[in-house]
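The freezer alarm interrupted the setup, so I double-checked each line after restarting. Inputs confirmed:
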Amino acid sequence: MEKIRRQERRIALTKILVDHPNHLFSLSFFSGLFMAAKSTVCEDVDAIRLAMEQFQLGKLETISGAAGGIKYTPVKAAIKIEEILLELAAKLSTPDRIIPGGFIYMSDILFNAQLMSPVGEVFMTRFNTSAPDYIMTVETKGIPLAYSTAKAFNLPLITVRSGSRVTEGPTVSINYVTGSSKRIQTMSVPRRAIPEGAKILIIDDFMKAGGTARGMVELAEEVGAEVVGIGVLVATAQPEEKLVKDYVPLLILQAVDEHNKITDIRPARRD
Amino acid sequence: MEKIRRQERRIALTKILVDHPNHLFSLSFFSGLFMAAKSTVCEDVDAIRLAMEQFQLGKLETISGAAGGIKYTPVKAAIKIEEILLELAAKLSTPDRIIPGGFIYMSDILFNAQLMSPVGEVFMTRFNTSAPDYIMTVETKGIPLAYSTAKAFNLPLITVRSGSRVTEGPTVSINYVTGSSKRIQTMSVPRRAIPEGAKILIIDDFMKAGGTARGMVELAEEVGAEVVGIGVLVATAQPEEKLVKDYVPLLILQAVDEHNKITDIRPARRD
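Predicted 3D structure, all chains:
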């Protein structure tokens, strides 16, 4: 009987931890939930940590002290990241995705949770040491990606809008020039969304010249926040010089040959 | 040694199933991954099923036959759903959310993954028997909710846009009249996003008159798809008569008393 109970406890514990990445659970929480001694919960945690390590499923941290507890972090191994990015590159380079004008149809992939959830964990892995307080993106196509990143980090997501909405209360707006089409645009965010001094990680789906990312940086600075990182799923190889420095692309779009229906997209090399 | 291996297997199996809701895994997949006999994997699955039932963490289905396998479905118990909705109602009714004009500031909640992931599972539980092929929403604030629902269902998400974009290829557009402000708007979707005959579940964050939902229904019908359900997180009590029939609200916004800073919002009663 005790053996069965232990198994069920560990399965339930695994499920709860996986559902709440980067959430710090106290030992007392689980000891109460399972009506088990804290030492028993600790043994369970050790077993789960071992299994996760063995199968490269993420990291289980035990933080000691009064404010301590257990935290599951969905860090991904380098080999797994490479696998995810190669799969995405393969999907994005099929000839039927090429749209007149040399664009690539990406919406179905960007709104696919089975594909974007792991990418959120890739961003979390890459930016974990930057210790952001908020994830920021701009509507619309980058939202699932940024949302998945926010979930992996257990952080709030701020979604910058085009124009300003009456249902958002007071907003902060900036004008910016899109890097590629040189049009003047407005983006805005509810004033209450970002506290002063907040550390912001910007996540977006696509970067060509970097005008939109630059706009988000300016918006963040406008409210006294600090940008600690910029991650994009796909960056174009050209123009090489972007309007923002220090961005982290996961994939590089080298070229789209519209005539021969060939898209050259590949995982970015890490410096 | 064998005991440790079994434990680790079950923990890893739980993690993989939870990460891929409604995904059908073949027994061979796990038997290959763990280098274990299929009968062993079956025993593991039974143990996980038992634990999930005991702690109300979802359902594990075994589908027999050549095309069969194991599938984790994150169905939520009625009591858990009530708990989630009461918590959301409490969060939404704090006085500081009231915006001049009688609106409620909801963005931080709508973009919070820890709050929206469970709501996606609530919608999955409610609409599971409708057997949709696609989840549909309209930009922007309903996206995380619809995305979480799509993840719980393991289905693609279609995001309807305002206007049409050059980077989407051929689009289907319709004009519709917003129910509350009586303005004419355009919404569009890439033609390739919805195959004819597809069964669509519409998910949105907010419904007042129902004009936007009605627009999505018309857009779906325009491409020969069938709407099998409409789910909204918050519906206003007034107007009682909406522009769509048979929608499922999770919360009802009874009234916002701007002067006294009181918001009356509560879980919808189920018929």
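Quick read of the result. Chain A has eight helices and twelve strands.
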